[in-house]
Amino acid sequence: MNYKLSNDARPQAMTLLLAAILSIALWFIPFAEILSYPFRIFVTFIHEGGHAIAALLTGNSVQSLSVAMNGSGETYTTKGGVLSQMLVSSAGYLGAMTFGATLLVLIRRSVAARVVLAASSVVVLGLTVIFGVIKPILAGTWGSLAGLPFTLVAGVLLSVGLFAVARFASAKVASFVVSLLAVQCVLNALLDLKTVFFLSSPFAATVPTDALNMANATGIPAIFWAALWIVISVFILVVAVKQYTSSQRRSFAGPSDLTLDRTADMWSMPALPSASEKVRYNKSV
Question: What's the pLDDT tens digit per position in 43-63?
Fold first, then answer.
């Protein structure tokens, strides 16, 4: 499918291309993965945050959210109905892809990079404090608290780093960092889904994955859900690229800034269920 790049998209496209080239190049340079490591952890926060938000939207409670040093993650929620489990299971990988695609659209529509970075900082900090620290402490189990130290340190450092770039970096640097975040979310979502697809093979060893949760909830093999998520992710990316390459001059005036308004009440804490009523959603490495 070919899209013609409009003239007004060329400045942003060059920055995005450089971000994509750098992201791919880091895969082939020995020990260079340390440079992309913070972005990998950021994507894991977005993935696990997708599970947490989907759980809240479907009337469930989030027990804990944790991110591991190897880039994997876990989110424990209460166990809802079949539809609820399907939505929460799907919200991890599809949420990361949607977040990356949304960043692409925001870049294209001239939303200030500083606003995007500041909002991302708030999102990571909120996930860290509410679901990574407060909820596990209230749960009071060792399983919930085991991942707390790294989750807290990583979440705070990421939040501070994103806010520092938004506050002190030049506009060009801020735009480049946003492009990196978008590319990393998209690429990591696709690569993680490829891993889940192979882990879901009937010939592979049984590994806890979001696709396996879907299989347990629906009785449909995990490999079907992994393949479906790949198709949906590619569709989301195609739609975002179409929005990115088309001209925006007629429909958008190109605002230079946005007002942030986070009034959603995320501090409600329902009674904790027994361990048998919990569901674990995993991001495998």
Answer: 999 999 999 999 999 999 998
Percent of the chain whose pLDDT exceeds 90:
38
User: Is residue 104 one of the residues assigned to a domain?
Assistant: yes
- Pick left, alpha or beta for residue 55 (phi over 0 → left; psi -120 to 50 → alpha; otherwise beta): alpha
Residue 273 has pLDDT above 70, yes or no: no
Domain assignment present for residue 256? The answer is no
Which residue range(s) make up the domain with 180?
15-248+275-283
CA distance 88 to 108: 29
Question: Cα separation of 74 and 82, whole Å?
Answer: 20
Residue 98: pLDDT band (50, 70, 90) is very high
In a domain, 161, yes or no: yes
Residue 59: Cβ-neighbour burial (10 angstroms; 0-12, 13-18, 19+): exposed
Looking at the 3D structure of the chain, how many domains does it have? Answer: 1
Phi and psi, residue 63, nearest 5°? -90, -40
